[in-house]
Amino acid sequence: MMNYDTFATAVVTRIKDILPQSFAMHEVERRTVYKPNKELDAMTLKPPAGVDAICPVIYLNDAYEVFMHTNDLDRILNDMANLIKDNTMAIPEGNTPGLPIEEDRIIMQVINTKRNAKYLETVPHREIMDLSVIYRVIMNMNDEGMDSFVITDSLLKDMDMTERDLYETAVVNMRTIDPFYMFDLMNIDQAISDGRFNSEKDIEELFEGYSGFTPLCLTNTSKVNGASYLADNELLDMISSYLDDNFYLFPVSIHEVFIFPEHSVENPEFLKCLLQDGNVSIINPEDYLSDSIYYFDKNQKELSIKISSEITLMRMPQAVQEEVLYYGTTQAANSTRETYEKYFEYKNNMNGRDKQGRQR
Fold this sequence. Notes:
Blueprint: H1 4-18, E1 27-35, E2 38-46, E3 53-54, E4 58-59, H2 60-70, H3 73-87, E5 89-90, E6 106-112, H4 117-120, E7 126-128, E8 131-142, E9 145-150, H5 153-157, H6 163-177, E10 180-184, H7 188-194, H8 200-208, E11 216-220, H9 233-243, E12 247-253, E13 256-261, H10 268-281, E14 293-297, E15 302-307, H11 318-327, H12 331-350, E16 357-359
Parallel strand pairs: 9-16
Antiparallel strand pairs: 1-2, 2-4, 3-5, 6-8, 7-8, 8-9, 10-11, 11-13, 12-13, 12-14, 14-15
Helix pairs in contact: 1-3
């Protein structure tokens, strides 16, 4: 079986042989496309001068995954050719390509700044600690799932909005389009049967029976890009008021964060090590958010980095390393570790039953 480079070269070289004569003057263009947490190898056809049309983008990485299962290059080329023929759109004279953007459909997503440096060069964003807020537009949302696309710098030029406008609009919209969803991680099954805690009234109900010593999960109703609520300082302030405490935020993924009341955490460095291990062994790389542990100060009403992503166990002072290793053997540490693992069992069991986000 051919390797990826050979496969990609073969596709780029042969695709025009499969396409009809109307594509003879098109130029095959291969380029890197940046998306949150990933770089994709893309191919499209560039129309000749004087021909106004949009051709679809084909991701060679995805095509190679199919090839590894089928080992049938001819079939893949034919499927690509059909996709290009069926989805190439002519642009009427005087029109410019684009998608209608309705302001009440703009929401936000939080991603890691360092890991997405190249991508962030192309999109309006704002930095929050070591994270960045980007903006998406919901195209469709129903029981089957949600379609959305990212607002790029080029799209923003055609909008009568600034980045600040995008942020303020997105904060309001996500509370109605995709409200926050919280539950006690020690009562996952009960949270599912009782429904979602996603209003102030529900939050009151949640905290009435909350012990204050177990982690909470904060996400959104769709459970897609739920860590966006890290950028909603008003919500974090409300949570701290109900807890009557400062709290640590454990960024599980781009989809959710765990909340640990400060009085319940004996060793925050252990949380840091647990997070870093999980990001290597459990989290899908496309879902990665951060290796940092965050901290919300109730009095200052401010979110900050408590333990930076740059700090690993081996970079901690010797005495701290020994404390972490010792604490890792305790019942409290085992309980936290088991809760983390149980949550992923819950997520795996829910796959296919919850809404899925289709993002461009």
